Amino acid sequence: MEKSSKVLLADDSAFMRKVLKDILEGIGFTNFIEAENGVEAIEKFNAEKPSLVMLDIIMPVKNGIDVLKEIGKKAQIIVVSAVGQDGMIEEAKTLGAVDYIIKPFDRAQVEEKIAAL
Ligand SMILES: [Mg+2]
Question: What CATH number is given for 6-115 in this structure?
Fold first, then answer.
């Protein structure tokens, strides 16, 4: 993926958005937009057409599964969630997520997933 690609960071935790942004900046990405709930994620996705979405599952208003139902097939989406049950991972992938990172994660795991895109 081009390092100039736009990345949407969708997570209700500002701290988690910052952690992900720092990791992605560390591997050269520069173009970020952020959303703090599922409705905002869908709106920003439709308005700004990011190439990559880092998507939380547990978020207010609409959760990450609801977001995947709307945009899952339209972008490269990596779910980043504390919910690690096989059933959830399976559902996310069925809805279009290309990969799934379980919180807490380390920097190397995220770098590896991005490199694999
Ligand atoms: Mg959350």
Answer: 3.40.50.2300
pTM: 0.97
Pairing of strands 31-35, 52-55: unpaired
Domain boundaries of the chain, sorted by first residue: 6-115
Q: Give the Å distance between the CA of 81 and the centre of ligand 1.
A: 7
- Expressed in angstroms and rounded, the spacing between residue 13 Cα and the centre of ligand 1 is 6
What element of type H or E holds 113?
Answer: helix 107-115
10 CA → ligand 1 middle, Å: 9
Quick: pLDDT tens for 30-61: 999 999 999 999 999 999 999 999 999 999 99
